[in-house]
Amino acid sequence: MQIISTFALVLVASSFTVAAPITKRDASTVLSDLSTLSSDISTLTSDALSYDGNIFQSLGLAVAVNSLESSITSTTSDTTSSSAFSTADSASIVSAVTTLTPAITTLLSDLNAKASTVASAGFTSTVLSALKTLDSDTDALFAALEAKATTSDAATLVTLQSTIDDAFLASEAAFS
């Protein structure tokens, strides 16, 4: 009787276990992720440009930053889980990142222009912390992309990363 009860319990417990589908992670997934990043960057840029120190706008910015952080982390994970990119896929990804680079530097420049507004609202340390996190997350993403790209495309990614790193350094200085 004890064995039957135990078996029944195991059977019931196993019926609640559902295997999560395995998502294929490849270059097309990474390209889709980069498109999401582009959208998140656009949203954050728009929010930053309209920011006037209002508490509700501050909350909106925080949500946009969190969404961007999540997208960067997800893109990094998908890139890391992908196999090495083919020559064509590598070129497509570099093209997408090349398009994103000025959007990122513009976002950071626009944010720098709001440093005094952010300071007046009392959120300088919060923004600086977010910038440092985004900088670190972005570096991790570039490392993952460089590891999967072709050699020549990896060199292009290093150059793009340097441009973005310089913009982050300027922003971190503006909020320090």
UniProtKB/TrEMBL annotation:
InterPro entries for the chain: Cell_wall_mannoprotein_1
Presence of the UniProt keyword Cytoplasm in the record: no
Signal among keywords: yes
Gene3D superfamilies xref list: 1.20.1280.140
Signal peptide: 1-19
Entry GO terms, CC: extracellular region
Keywords assigned: Signal
PANTHER family assigned: CELL WALL SERINE-THREONINE-RICH GALACTOMANNOPROTEIN MP1 (AFU_ORTHOLOGUE AFUA_4G03240), HYDROPHOBIC SURFACE BINDING PROTEIN
Protein name according to UniProt: Hydrophobic surface binding protein A-domain-containing protein
Source organism per UniProt: Cudoniella acicularis
